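Batch job 17 of 40 flagged for manual review because the log was empty.
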Amino acid sequence: MKIIDLSLPIDEKAFEVHKVQIERVDHKAGVEKFNRVIMGKTLLGKLKYALGKRIVKKEDLPDEEFLSLEIVHSPVHIGTHLDYSFHYGSLSENRPSKTADEIPLEYCYQDGVRLDFSHKLPNEIIRAQDIETALAKINYKLKPLDIVFLRTGADKSWGTPKYFSDYPGVDVSAIDYLLDRGIKVFGVDTMGIDRPYRFMLKEFLEKKDTKYLYPAHFYGRKREFIHIERLANLEKLPDSGFKVVCFPVRIKNTGAAWARVVAIV
């Protein structure tokens, strides 16, 4: 058995559109953090702390070290994550949209198939016909609940501005093709399923037509689906014959959730 990591990390040093901050309290500073938090629960405790009182002193600890602590401030769309219908709109299929903590777990452990679209250029889109052609090329017929990965190679630009500007999008016809065959989850190695901002916004501003803005995401209001963004290392996978594990972190009432996505070959 071989396990292949298909996930990108949350990294405050990588280039991102949204701010990511990780507060890192090391072992030496941990005791001060502990005292400040514990004593800060009451007014009297705060006063004692301000006067230099301590519950625990560094001299009380082995090697004068406490426990490390990392506090992550990050959107749920940073790092590899699953998007569900609440992200797309308040309604999906004329029902209240579902949040990421409602993703059925049975959808997240299924057979996987990888389709190669690394030939697609930035601003191009992956259509239903492209999906059909790619399946014929590997002689594979989709079955319900398969998890389908669309490989573009864009993950190699992660951490740079290019990651946000150079990748193909997914057409609504491709989403329909997958859903019509019982697919519940599909994934991309790009930062999003729609074309990059620079193309969508340019066409919207020129033509004043909202159909150019996030058509794939907004399609989740018409048909319910789950998709994975920011996958990596899809080139390490075979075309089929592997299992996918993509359980989302259980965060209440969010449109997306982080996941450590892996393939078991």
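Reviewer: the log was empty due to a logging misconfiguration, but the result itself is present. The longest strand covers residues 109-116. Unflagging and moving on to job 18.
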